[in-house]
Design goal:
seven-stranded mixed sheet; single chain; about 40% strand; globular; about 270 residues; alpha/beta; 5 helices
């Protein structure tokens, strides 16, 4: 389908100060914006520039009596990646397409013109919750927000609920991809290309050309990219789900971000 973009990966945490310490103090991320949701609070950070890298959203439980979905997730699974969000041009059409291929969207909400959403459960989305969202803000709006936050050091939010992060690392890391494990790589690849609009790329994690030119696949994994620069890499694994985040940094390192390993290596 056209008009689909990988917007961000969301991580549930119980220690927002520690999580910001990792992504800002250790990785040099820019805090962009945040706010209150229903049963949770969120803050988004950019690991990269407005035109490179990817966005990470940090989630914490807040007012679970309103909606306890995040509290239940943490109780059952612990901290870690909660979902990946894909922005779509027409959510209603996307949901019809999903149903036509045997998927069962959950939590469908179409009432708010500023933010319409639905979800696919991990059992149908190859190990990870997928959020499908339609917003009245275009990609340029978020790009401008990243530019303002980078220039001023002042994020946007109503309210700004999170604690002040540490000084950012002077050697920032660029988030390059989300690495997904899959026991059935071909089927997982088809889901992310045929349904979610990813395109094959011929660059693997080492920056060299794949042996299967034109498919984005080699013996190590399959690389997919979306128009906004979001990337995932699908690798063979006994169980499905997010394995780690990978980026380019000034030195090889492994950091633990709410149960998720972030690996950075010099290019």
């Amino acid at each position: 389908m056209s008009g689909i973009d990988l917007d961000h990966v969301a991580i549930a945490t119980t220690d927002i100060a520690g999580a910001l310490g990792h992504v800002v103090g250790d990785l040099g991320a820019v805090v962009v914006h945040g706010g209150d949701g229903y049963g949770f609070r969120w803050v988004q950070v950019r690991l990269g520039t407005p035109t490179t890298g990817m966005t990470v959203e940090l989630l914490v439980v807040w007012k679970p009596e309103v909606n306890d979905f995040l509290a239940r997730f943490i109780a059952g699974h612990g901290v870690g990646v909660h979902h990946m969000t894909f922005k779509v041009d027409d959510l209603a059409a996307t949901l019809e397409h999903a149903k036509s291929i045997g998927l069962h969207p959950l939590g469908v909400s179409l009432e708010n013109p500023q933010w319409r959403e639905a979800f696919l459960a991990p059992r149908e989305a190859h190990g990870t919750v997928i959020q499908l969202a339609q917003t009245d803000h275009g990609p340029g709006d978020f790009t401008a927000m990243i530019e303002r936050a980078t220039a001023t050091g002042a994020p946007e939010g109503s309210p700004i609920w999170w604690p002040p992060p540490p000084a950012p690392s002077a050697s920032p890391t660029v988030l390059r991809r989300v690495v997904l494990g899959s026991p059935a790589r071909t089927r997982t690849t088809e889901f992310f290309t045929d349904f979610l609009g990813g395109s094959h790329t011929d660059t693997n994690t080492a920056g060299t050309n794949n042996t299967d030119t034109g498919t984005g696949a080699d013996v190590d994994g399959t690389d997919l990219v979306w128009p906004g620069g979001g990337r995932i890499r699908i690798v063979d694994a006994p169980t499905a789900g997010v394995l780690r985040l990978e980026g380019d940094g000034p030195a090889a390192r492994v950091l633990d971000l709410s149960g998720i390993h972030f690996t950075g290596a010099a290019r």
